Known about the structure:
CATH class: Mainly Beta
Oligomer: single chain
Number of strands: 46
Helix content: under 10%
Shape: globular
Amino acid sequence: xxxxxxYPLSLQGGQRKFLFGAAIxxxxxxxxxxxxxxxxxxxxxxxxxxxxVIVTATRREQTIQEVPMSVSAFTGEQLAQLQADNLNSIxxxxxxxxxxxxxxxxxxxxxxxxxxxxxxxxxxxxPAIGLYLDDVYMSRIQGGMFKLYDIERVEVLRGPQGTLYxxxxxxxxxxxxxxxxxxxxxxxxxxxxxxxxxxxxxGYVSGPVSxxxxxxFSVLYDEHDGFVTDxxxxxxxxxxxxxxxxxxxxxxxxDDVNIVFSADYTKEDxxxxxxxxxxxxxxxxxxxxxxVLLQPAPTGKWxxxxxxxxxxxxxxKTDNYGGNVTLNWDINDRTSFKSITAYRKLQSDLYIDIDAxxxxxxxxxxxxxxxxxxxxxxxxxxxxxxLNWVAGLYYLNEKVPSHQDAWADNxxxxxxxxxxxxxxxxxxxxxKSYAAFGQVDWQxxxxxxxxxxxxxxxxxxxxxRTTSTFTNLLGNADPAYTFDDSDHWSxxxxxxxxxxxxxxxxxxxxxxSNGFKSGGFxxxxxxxxxxxxxxxxxxxxxxxxxxxxxxxxxxxxNYAVFASKYDDFQARVSIGEGLEASLPVLxxxxxxxxxxxxxxxxxxxxxxxFNSQIGYLNSTYGDEGFSGADGVEDEPxxxxxxxxxxxxxxxxxxxxxxxxxxNAAASYRDSMWLGVDNLVTLWESDYWVLDAFISWTSQxxxxxxxxxxxxxxxxxxxxxxxxxxxxxxxxxxxxxxxxTYTLSLNYKx
Length: 749
């Protein structure tokens, strides 16, 4: 049994000075608001007032301005302003968030919040950021690139979520809340066309079936041609061909009992997702011990062309579906009970050309058949005056059998004679997670609230793996390397908050939180030295923030400063070469993280609105540092120092009652590493991305026409990387989408 070490956040001198100085700065920023609010009562005219967004980040309904933590939320209308089709569309709109498509897969997602994340989609790694669909935790980042249709809102919670959320996560949580049908009939349909053969069709209908039962159904089909071309045969890759359906019901069983159920299905059938080989590719001659050049490193910008030798093998197919039932029971006026029962299934067959070349070095097939069952119980209450509380239990049972094939027929030679090489893997991971949690918020004075919560997590994992290698040098397969192991971990993760309402327009808060991610097993263990489990990750994070409303409700400014101590960082590294290539997973180091964030929304008139998000992040390995296989001390990956977005929308109110809106946005991302081992090939310089659209809406809001453009400057930029230097010197980068433009027509019935 292993119990992770736990200790209060220990801030270094620079971090203490930073938090102290930042607290003074926050006070300076909000104190003028205090005097402004006293001398300027709310205007009688509500024109230009900002929309009040209701979230359930603390398991009860609150406005964003009331929640004592850093939360960004997007309503359906705000998602439309982002031209948000997929989950990665919110990239840039949240400070210190890095959210992109995962390496080599169209449906996986790579999420980092404040320098904390897990980019590897292999099933033996748990996500560091919790992804939730209607409060159901999604165990895999594979299948996490959800389509943002039929979505009521998206919430992004920054910092450890170790107390209230289904699965303990050290970096944060992203919650997708779908529309719940009500007693009013609602329906809409739309079509969209664009370059690269883009076509999208969608429809949604919901309404009452009886006085107590409502039903909603949505469907979306989305396709486009590939962004990447193989010049040798003209085939297209990095395309889209996805269908999504959802059925959701809302049943008022009685005055006190409500049941909401939903079932969703996503089917994707696409070609491979290709990147570019950024370094020279090599063979190893076992006879001479010398490397042999297969392909030199590229020069210049990428033209979205890649030759692949896997075009005849297959593409990537994913089926992601599930259902959940949420029961809400008002036991009395002060106490309620909630049960969330869910089952999900993820089946994927993925061909991945890791080396992104005409050579057989990193040709891979990965097939998984994941299933998960989860059950959560919550008991919520208040005393009607100054106390709110929640207590709960959580259970997750996940099973992930998988089969993998890897071919590398150009990897090895023996005195110039090619050696065929194939490795097969069959493994099975079973995870059981148990948790008990509770939190109390006590308003102990007129404007002061103290919150305290704790979660106990216990997780057990059983792992079986067998690996066989086939070569023409050795004849038959060498004896299968097999291991069967199990381990378990537990942790207590507390959270403390102190919340002060300076006045109706200014709220100050402090938050100290602890998060935990369990250990696991090396899913790439090919040698006895690679087997065994690695330890959990834990993080302590301190945050000071201010949430303010000014200018008679027309200007909203939220600020936060934070510092985190991230312990036992789990890193997969690449060591050695040839038949002795090793891919161990290490608890590599601690990370010292600190930074600041600001979010602004300003609506000076009915017609004009500005919003901006700015994040600063300083992430470094601790005193002991971390050195990759080259022995050079590295910096944390996916941790750009600055992220920012500046956007504005202007609306013309036309004669006859229709409106015409113009929207433009510029997003900035500072330079960053795209892999744990800092390789110059997997480094992305800072860049800007420009988006814009024009939208016309009819008088009654029934008709809507939108013409939009994303990445208007056709900026070429890397978003993720694959690094397997021990196999042919593989260093592959994946890129963001090129310039795309669309025209859509939508109608509400």
